[in-house]
Write a structure and sequence with these properties.
Distance between the termini of chain B: 43 Å
Number of domains of chain A: 1
Helix content of chain A: over 70%
CATH superfamily of chain A: MetI-like
CATH architecture of chain A: Orthogonal Bundle
Radius of gyration of chain B: 23 Å
Radius of gyration of chain A: 24 Å
Order of helices and strands of chain B: HHHHHHHHHHHHHH
Number of helices of chain B: 14
Strand content of chain A: under 5%
CATH class of chain B: Mainly Alpha
Shape of chain A: globular
Strand content of chain B: under 5%
CATH class of chain A: Mainly Alpha
Oligomer: heterodimer
Number of strands of chain B: 0
CATH topology of chain A: MetI-like fold
Structural class of chain B: mainly alpha
CATH architecture of chain B: Orthogonal Bundle
Strand order of the largest sheet of chain A: 1-2
Largest sheet of chain B: none
Chain lengths: 292, 270
């Protein structure tokens, strides 16, 4: 087997090399290229070559009201959606963390939103929200509540989109927390029960603190994905009415592929990238601390 | 007595949960079986005579079948390339605890796709690769590769190292060990990775929206384009939505156990 000795002793970089090259070529290089474009004055439709302008684009975009509103809206959307998902997701996990008839079926159902095509999910909710034929207003009317304009009104559009995100991604947190709960030892809870603790005390003071690291990881994963939400917003509102549901991802898309203002678009993409990177660093720090 | 009341309350909560989760799927299915007249009726109709006309219409269009094939081809190649690149990388990460390498590949999963997409758009245009399978597959591999690496490196870690050590004593090369001993033991992991990677490629909208045009357009774009008509054909778009979701939902039902472990293992293991 001597003919293989070179490969054998260098296997630790030969095996991952193709994957590393791929990621370098399709991820690292493009991100650097985007950063370069953010420093140039470039409009694809003008036909001119990019000319270096330093931080001029940043100066323009970062004070533009439309950008600042999109930034704020991205935060509001992300935080409200993930907060709701965390509370509902953990509650559902605590509810389902016991033996009962149909448990497997319920777990299967919880998977379905996670694998459902987001664009199609958005379209189905569009039908729900339709002001004249939608089920949403029918439910409100049956409950004796006034009808809502949902996604066609600037004041309700963001909440309507948050509801869709909560519907689709709460099960993610539930399933992760359920897996975390299954890995816990029963002993602390049993001991507390013998000492006369109530079920609510056990959940609040023992179960939740023990499963907290898993909850935090799940929530950060969701935060990162919610920041990047694109499909449902693009499909349902396209950022409208007006700019009322435009997030960073949406505005980045429009500047790039509708206005072709590449230099300014790149600024938005760099900002979004940095926000997501900060969250990603947080998650790796956290997992490292737990591994240690 | 208290016990019975508690049970009713518990099952009530579970049924409510299941109903909320199922509602959009059911309404999509119901609406896809309605005529346009039934769909726009107010109050919404829960009893109606079902018709398959929406499905005939959607599948009767040559283009829809083509988009279906495009989606399948792109997802299949993206998964295939990801396995080719990802399996050896995942094995190396697991065997030599290459955490930093794992993080770099995981970053591709975390970063916003749009920050790669603009440069791709420019570069693929220059290379004449717009609206080709090559561009689409390359972009989708950036989605599917992290999934494969993440799931498979965790899986390889569970295979006892003693197996490899005894093979090495017998003089087997690393390649032989990987291809003939490790991979044949990795069926469940590969099923998980393949299923999830396929679904995430299948569902991707953004990359195809920008990089594909008439020739290589995938299903999510085709479904979205239904909305661009002034008078939305709700029955047609719901039938199309059922068609696009069906493969992912069926795969999930078949491979339920694997999909759950694939979606949750990363977070629980940290």
């Amino acid at each position: 087997m001597t003919h293989n000795s070179y490969a054998d002793s260098n296997i630790r970089w030969i095996y991952p090399l193709p994957a590393i090259l791929f990621v370098a070529l399709l991820m690292v290089f493009p991100v650097l290229y985007t950063t370069y474009i953010s420093l140039t004055n470039w409009t694809l439709t003008s036909g001119n070559a990019p000319s270096f302008v330093g931080l001029e684009n940043f100066g323009q975009v970062l004070i533009e009201p439309r950008f600042l509103q999109a930034l704020w809206r991205t935060m509001v959307f992300t935080i409200s959606a993930v907060a709701a998902e965390a509370v509902l997701g953990v509650a559902a996990a605590l509810l389902l963390d016991r033996a009962f008839v149909g448990r497997n079926l319920v777990k299967l159902l919880l998977l379905l939103p996670l694998v459902a095509t987001p664009v199609a999910v958005g379209i189905v909710f569009n039908l729900f929200y339709d002001p004249t034929i939608g089920l949403a207003n029918y439910v409100l009317e049956s409950l004796g509540l006034p009808a809502s304009s949902w996604i066609s009104d600037a004041s309700t559009v963001l909440l309507s989109l948050v509801i869709v995100d909560v519907w689709q991604w709460t099960p993610m947190i539930t399933l992760i927390v359920l897996a975390g709960l299954a890995a816990l030892s029963d002993e602390p809870a049993e001991a507390a029960r013998i000492d006369g603790a109530s079920e609510w005390q056990i959940i609040r003071l023992i179960t939740i603190p023990m499963v907290m690291p898993v909850i935090v990881t799940a929530v950060i994963l969701r935060l990162i994905d919610a920041l990047k939400t694109f499909d449902i917003i693009f499909a349902m509102t396209g950022g409208g009415p007006g700019y009322a549901s435009e997030t960073l991802n949406l505005i980045g898309y429009k500047y790039s592929f509708e206005y072709f203002r590449m230099g300014q678009a790149a600024v938005i993409l760099v900002v979004l990238f940095l926000i997501v990177l900060a969250c990603s660093v947080a998650i790796t720090r956290l997992s490292k601390r737990r591994a240690a | 007595m208290l016990k019975v009341g508690y049970k009713i309350l518990f099952y009530g909560a579970v049924v409510l949960l299941a109903a909320i989760v199922l509602m959009p799927f059911l309404w999509m299915l119901i609406s896809s079986l309605k005529t346009q007249v039934d769909i726009v009726a107010w109050p919404p109709k829960f009893v109606f005579s079902p018709t398959f006309q929406n499905y005939y219409k959607v599948f009767g269009e040559q283009d829809f079948i083509r988009y279906f094939i495009n989606s399948t081809v792109v997802a299949a190649f993206a998964v295939g390339v990801s396995l080719l690149l990802g399996l050896p990388a995942a094995y190396s990460i697991a065997r030599f605890s290459q955490r930093r390498l794992a993080l770099v590949i995981l970053l591709a999963r975390l970063m916003p796709g749009i920050s790669f997409l603009m440069p791709w758009y420019i570069i693929f245009s220059r290379l004449g690769l717009m609206d080709t399978y090559v561009a689409l597959v390359l972009s989708h591999v950036l989605i599917t590769l992290p999934i494969v690496v993440w799931i498979m490196s965790s899986y390889f870690e569970t295979i006892p190292i003693e197996l490899e050590e005894s093979a090495m004593v017998d003089g087997a090369s690393r390649n032989y060990i990987f291809l003939r001993i490790i991979l044949p033991l990795s069926g469940p992991g590969i099923i998980t990775a393949t299923t999830l990677a396929f679904i995430f490629s299948w569902n991707n909208f953004l990359f195809s929206q920008v990089l594909s045009m008439e020739r290589t357009r995938t299903l999510p774009i085709a479904v979205f384009n239904f909305l661009s008509y002034a008078d939305i054909d709700w029955g047609g778009v719901m039938a199309a939505s059922v068609a696009i979701m069906a493969p992912a939902l069926v795969l999930t039902m078949i491979f339920q156990r694997y999909v759950v472990s694939g979606l949750t293992m990363g977070a629980v293991k940290g």
